User: Fold this.
Amino acid sequence: MAIHNILRQSREQAGLTLEQAAECIGISGASFSRMENGLSKVNTDRLEMLAELYGVSASALVEGSIVMRPSTVDLERLQAIVQAVQTVINSYRVRPSPEKMAMAVAELYRLEIEHIVNNPKADFDAHRHIGIIEAMFKK
Assistant:
């Protein structure tokens, strides 16, 4: 993937408009647009600023191997999922293997990500997952 496509995708994943991103690195919206559209080159200073702004490494931008840093919301939801799983486990008095616990948390987190992609402002609701957790850990 060309760097200008990666820059656009990274900006959008960061939830920034073109103008917001341009302001953050100190250039005009028009200059930023030219950079994202491959009409002007990205110098190393700007690349570093963009990487910092998007929460990725500069090499990830260049290579196209972007992995976004988890946000506070991501970490809070993950913590809530672990607590929900632990509550059900405690109520059933079971002792799952670490692998089974990890599988349950990963699957519920995947479901939660799908849910917030479709409902970005939705709060975490453990009740949405209780049936799944119970099915995973019933004796």
Q: What stands out?
A: The chain has a mean pLDDT of 85.
